[in-house]
Design brief:
Elements (H helix, E strand, L loop, with lengths): L2 H20 L5 H15 L3 H13 L3 E5 L2 H12 L4 E4 L3 H6 L1 H7 L3 E4 L2 H9 L15 H12 L7 H18 L2 E4 L3 E3 L4 E6 L3 H5 L4 E7 L3 E2 L2 H16 L6 E5 L4 E2 L7 E2 L6 E7 L3 H6 L13 H5 L3 H4 L4 E2 L2 E2 H9 L6 H4 L7 H4 L7 H9 L3 H24 L2
Parallel strand pairs: 1-12, 2-3, 2-4, 4-7, 5-8, 7-12
Antiparallel strand pairs: 5-6, 6-9, 10-11, 13-14
Helix pairs in contact: 2-11, 15-18
Length: about 400
């Protein structure tokens, strides 16, 4: 990430922090406590996972529980069938699976429908925030790149940028028969899929002939009430708004009983819904002392306050794993990532600003250190690197 992108990233993060200061979230402390209790109950709870799957199936939703990355990709390919165009919404689990690349190798075009994700896809860049993937790019830089892609001049007015990308997305949605989304929560009591969004694109994607939901086993919640509580905290930390523009709760395909009280399914939207629940080593994490990593709701508030991330941006990342938490998660299974994990200052800013009070610094120290001497070495090295980059930023014009 270059100097201009780091400055753009800081500007975006400052905007969100200002919204936090302006919007008073009443009873935030109590809601955080309830969220923590829900995560402690659900993560790694095989009985609740089983209950959620059974209730999803009772609601007429097909469910696949898959262990590994390749199994997940193969299952998704099977569900897509012969279709060659898929429209999808933001999903960190599909990024983890590198799904778009895998489908592309099979001749299937995947079009992102979130504005930021579509811009990122066109520009071929990597995300800088889980809910704001192009936070590091200025409108000027985006307009320049999009002008080349669409082969026409686009000015750096954000309204025009959004309009152009929106028209592109709408065209693809109209031509597709398969929609793919993630899920913010799966509820055990109701067997429901809960999704949140601000742009309205998920409302369109989930109404294609077939709706495929790709999410992970750590997204289970006891009930809709606990899921909505999580969404409010997620929205506030990610954007500064207390509730997102849209909350979708799906408990089966559309149906009517208006004629002789007989249920007719598939009246509007998808006539088939499939949920793919991905493990991808999460069960191992839960059993091996890193269960707390899976409590994370992906709000990205830690990144807003991380001094290393605000200095070098998504250079402090591995593919789609952003910041200390993401690198800690990935490094447990990939030794190459540890080089970036050593950049962590273990300053505690992430823990201090996490709604779940996740102790990421302790986990980082546990992963990267074999003893006191090596931890001291990493501490000094990371602080020297941080001081160097801070000095470079001050020298830049």
């Amino acid at each position: 990430m270059n100097h201009e992108q780091v400055i753009a990233l800081r500007k975006t993060f400052n905007t969100v922090r200002q919204r936090h200061n302006q919007n008073n979230f009443k009873d935030f402390g109590n809601r955080r406590r309830r969220l923590r209790e829900a995560r402690e109950l659900c993560v790694g709870n095989e009985e609740l996972l089983k209950q959620a799957i059974e209730n999803l199936q009772k609601n007429g939703i097909k469910v696949h529980l898959v262990k590994e990355k390749q199994e997940a990709i193969d299952t998704i390919l099977s569900e897509i069938g012969d279709e060659k165009l898929v429209v999808k919404s933001k999903s960190n689990v599909t990024k983890e699976l590198e799904l778009t690349k895998s489908l592309g190798r099979k001749g299937i075009e995947v079009v992102e429908t979130d504005i930021g994700d579509r811009i990122m896809q066109i520009l071929g860049t990597t995300p800088s925030h889980p809910t704001g993937p192009v936070s590091h790019l200025s409108a000027k830089e985006i307009a320049r790149e999009l002008s080349g892609h669409y082969n026409k001049p686009i000015n750096d007015n954000p309204d025009e940028i959004v309009k152009i990308v929106r028209e592109d997305v709408i065209s693809s949605i109209g031509n597709a028969k398969v929609g793919l989304t993630g899920a913010n929560a799966i509820t055990a009591d109701e067997g429901s899929i809960v999704l949140t969004h601000n742009e309205g694109n998920i409302s369109e994607v989930m109404r294609k002939d077939k709706h495929i939901v790709v999410t992970s086993i750590d997204k289970i919640y006891p009930d809709i009430e606990s899921a909505i509580n999580m969404l409010k905290i997620l929205s506030y930390n990610a954007t500064g708004s207390i509730i997102p523009s849209f909350v979708e709760i799906i408990t089966g395909v559309s149906k009517t009983a208006d004629v002789e009280k007989k249920f007719i399914k598939g009246v509007h939207g998808a006539s088939e819904i499939t949920v793919i629940l991905v493990d991808n080593k999460r069960s191992q994490l839960a059993l091996n002392g890193f269960r707390e990593l899976l409590y994370c709701i992906g709000c990205g508030n830690c990144l807003l306050y991380c001094p290393m991330y605000n200095t070098i941006g998504n250079e402090y990342a591995e593919d789609n794993y952003l910041g200390g938490k993401g690198l800690a998660y990935q490094s447990l299974y990939n030794d190459e990532v540890n080089g970036k994990l050593k950049l962590c200052l273990t300053c505690g800013k992430c823990k201090e600003n996490c709604p779940l009070d996740l102790d990421i610094p302790s986990m980082v120290r546990k992963i990267r250190s074999e003893g006191i001497s090596s931890e001291v070495y990493y501490f000094l090295k990371s602080h020297m690197i941080w001081m160097y980059y801070q000095a470079m930023l001050r020298l830049k014009p």
